[in-house]
Amino acid sequence: MAEVKPLIPATSRDVERALGEDPYIGKLRKTVQQLFGAESNPKFAEHAEHAFRGAFALVFFAIPIIMPNEVWSFRDKVMELGVYSSGVCMFIVFNLGVSFGQAFNSCKSGLQGTLVSSMMGWIMYTLYPGGYEATSPEYVFYGGVAAGIIYVSLVMSLRCGISLQMFALSNFASTWMDFLNEKHEATIMPPWTPGWSIQQDTLTQNFVCTGLGMVAVMVASLFPYPRWSLMFVTESQLHANLQVVQVLDTIVKYYSNDKPNVYIKDQVIRRLTKMRGMLTENDSLLAAAWWECYGLGRSQVKRRVLASMDKTTKTISDMIWNAWQESISEDVGEMDAKLMRAVRPSIEEVLKSMQVTLNLLVKAASDGELDDAEVKALENSFKDLQDKDEEMTKSFASARKDITKGEAMAIYKDVRVAQVLLFSISRVVSQTVELADKIKQQMSKSNLLPPAPEMGGWSALFENLLEKDHVIYVARGLLAYLLAFQLGWHGWGGIVPRRAAAVAGTAPFLITMYVGSAMVSDLNRIQGLMIGQVMARVVRGLVDSCYLDDLIGLCLITFVWVFIGVFVREHSTTFSSVGAMAAAFGGTTLLGGKRGPVGRVL
């Protein structure tokens, strides 16, 4: 059966006006999206563009790593200092957010994790500058063990961000291992130590490298055009407005038939699912948008308006879902269908007016303020919506009286489904009018709208620490990390050398949160790790020289590898963790190793 056409199609021009962006940026954005096939598959295009940005930024910032020695003296000095290495790939891939705000928040969290692990290392080496040595008392060793266990337990137990937790634990593994290893010469010097230099402190080098990784992620989020969080929320809200109207129209059409139509019923279910799915990511995007405006100016007003619209749309979605579940469980009679057909024209007029009002709210809030023309348009719009709602109510009352002949039993039983639907539509209209009125007053400096979702502050670190799922996650994480550290400390045959921190350093990236099947998720991550560590090493062997053609080949291979990995992470629910791990560890493996002098003149 043919797809039901929307009452008011949302055009690309509607989206551009609602976004309120610069015409040049809008044209550039549209062109880029078309290159990735946005017209035929918008979600595919969005994920492909995101992967392309990440892969391009990674390869661009990896040029100094790929470059042979003795070509650029400044590059040689930077690499010799240790402030830039292939480890930056890991940071870029894991913190590559969909929007600028999400990327900035994730990078900030990762940078904090690196700083926390560095501070712990500096404190340990301040107390014992050489770490545990052959001549040191035994309490130095056991004190180092206790300090490490306490540190790992705190990082795992507190409600830290995922990025902070991963990098705080991964970076600390080598610091802890080296501190306890009596045969290892100390390579850490706290910045407050007399005679400090960056050459003598690997923790400072690592922190600078992480900062450069953050710059790379920010560049990927800003070029060729910025991907603001509110841009995604605006698009999502416009499409959700359309879905609200479409799903209500399809439900009305379904109940206007004398006999159930399974094709229309399938459309209702798919559209209900699609509408609810559109709103799942808005909270995180709205919270991340704080980093794009710091809670100030017109962008903050727009953020609050969109947050209120998102909340109202979720309420409307729940109302429609409940109305559908209630009505589908009832036996639909001939009178229901007859009544729905009688009032359907007035319902369609209400739905058209409602979509106009909802879209006007998004467009009017695009610049964070309302001018006189926008205020007038909004007032006219929701007055028209109220008038049509009243007309629908009168039409319904008249049609119900004619069809049921005013009989109480017929009104109670024979048109029950139609009454549930009409009541739900009327409630949706009242929600829309109430929202429009609040937004108009808010934009006129009346503080009526609730605040937008916010990122958790310091207090969020201590929330629900005794929650069952969190306790299980902490126990699993601690056990995995400490066992990995033990394995690295004692070694295992000829596979894992003694005093190797790499095993414990990798464990934090494999520890999963309590979502879905932990075993399946862990296996997926291990699979991605093996692809990144083993397969990437095999591919790396094809271009293992410093000749120009091999260097160009390495750039291309790295780009394709990271592009595919990030795309799989974004586009596939099943293999998301496989793609993430393969991209992060594969990129690090491809760009790892030492560089010799150039093989021939470049």
Automatic annotation (TrEMBL):
Record carries keyword Cell cycle: no
Keywords: Membrane, Transmembrane, Transmembrane helix
Highest taxon listed in the record's lineage: Eukaryota
Transmembrane segments: 51-69, 81-104, 110-128, 140-168, 471-489, 501-520, 547-568, 574-593
Protein name: Uncharacterized protein
Native organism: Symbiodinium necroappetens
Classification of source organism: Eukaryota, Sar, Alveolata, Dinophyceae, Suessiales
